Amino acid sequence: MLFSSCFVAASALVGSAFGAPAQHSERAAAVVYDSETGFTFAEHKVAYTLSASIAVRVAVPSSAQAGQPYDAVFQIIVPNQVGWAGIAMGGSMVYNPLLVGWANGQQTQASTRWATAHAQPQIYNNAQLQKLTAGNRANGTHWQFTVKCTGCTSYQGRTGSTTTLNPKGGNRMALVISNGKPQQPSNANSNLVMHEGPIYWTQSFPEGANANFGELVRRNGGTTTSDGEVPTNGSVKA
Ligand code: HEM
Ligand SMILES: *[C@@H]1O[C@H](CO)[C@@H](O)[C@H](O)[C@H]1NC(C)=O
Ligand SMILES: *[C@@H]1O[C@H](CO)[C@@H](O)[C@H](O)[C@H]1NC(C)=O
Predict the structure, then answer these.
(1) 99, 89 in Cβ contact below 8 A?
(2) What is the C-alpha separation between 146 and 137, in angstroms, rounded?
(3) How do residues 5-40 score in pLDDT, each as one tens digit?
(4) Segment 34-47, tens digit of pLDDT
(5) What CA–CA distance (Å, rounded) separates 34 from 24?
(6) Domain that residue 160 falls in
(7) Is residue 50 part of a domain?
(8) Cα(195) to centroid of ligand 1, in Å?
(9) Residue 185 gets which letter from DSSP?
(10) Ligand 3 neighbours (beta carbon < 6 A)
(11) E strands present in 72-226
(12) Within a domain: 226
């Protein structure tokens, strides 16, 4: 392969690496403190070529319990040659929340989708995103988004039964990327173009437990009922 252009070389590798889906064994996440937002994240670097990876980070309230819905903050850091990236919360294209994002100039877009077939997913209104005031940017090498999601960690799957991601364990996810931008990058609801992938891994959540989750969400311009702080009365719900 001729490495006359970094971009061409990287694009070629994206195609070949996705020919045989990489399997990442179950393992602990790295603990990453993000001084920009104040969150402590559980980070997995998900390799999509031999030399390039996407950092997938999740922060959850320390108070989140298995089997109960809770808000989570997702941050992904993506090399610029990736046109859009998506995370499937249940490791499948269909019947689970899909979190997608891309760069729009020096800003980013993020949105939740839902698919029942291997075709253009629908906008998914059962999960709501708040783009935090920090941690969203695009520059000469990378783009990254930081969003609080209400509704990403609990959903009704194909059979109608509820699946909840385990805040105290590992959750199997899938990542897809596209070399092409969405059709209208300035529109968070834009149609997407076909992707490469998937790559599967098990995202460990406990390393991203935040005792002051609610306070951190509010400090970054968001709202949450998954406070993490010790409730002063019995009405605080996940
Ligand atoms: C234009 C939008 C999309 C189209 C046309 C599309 C189409 C497809 C097709 C045709 C496959 C099967 C590929 C194969 O069997 O080789 C597939 C698989 C897959 N797609 Fe998509 N897709 C779209 C968006 C998305 C999004 C937004 C996500 C996740 C964030 C996603 C995640 C996956 C995953 C995880 C698979 C692996 C198989 C599975 O779990 O069903 N796709 N997609
Ligand atoms: C570009 O953004 C990435 C991801 O946020 C960051 O790691 C990197 O330091 C930034 N580069 C510059 C020159 O600011
Ligand atoms: C209980 O706590 C919640 C959340 O902080 C608050 O909205 C609510 O007003 C409180 N209720 C009482 C009776 O103090």
Answers:
(1) yes
(2) 9
(3) 333 333 333 433 444 444 445 689 999 999 999 999
(4) 999 999 999 999 99
(5) 24
(6) 20-219
(7) yes
(8) 7
(9) T
(10) 233, 235-236
(11) 72-79, 84-88, 98-104, 107-114, 122-123, 128-131, 137-138, 142-150, 154-156, 162-164, 170-178, 196-204, 209-210
(12) no
In-domain check, residue 98:
yes
How many domains in the chain?
1
Rounded to whole angstroms, the Cα distance separating 223 from 151 reads 13
CA of 181 to the centre of ligand 2 (A): 20
User: φ and ψ at 195, to 5 degrees?
Assistant: -110, 170
Is the pTM here over 0.70, yes or no? yes
The H or E element that residue 9 is part of is: helix 6-17
What residues contact 188, with CB distance under 8 A and at least 6 apart? Answer: 109, 110, 111
SS3 of residue 68 by DSSP:
coil
- Ligand 2 closest atom vs CA 139: 1
Going from the Cα of 62 to the center of ligand 1, the distance in angstroms, rounded, reads 32
For residue 165, give the CATH number of its domain: 2.60.40.1210
Closest ligand relative to 218 C-alpha: 3
Residues 90 and 157: beta-carbon distance below 8 Å: yes
Q: Which residues pair with 77 in a beta bridge?
A: 55, 144
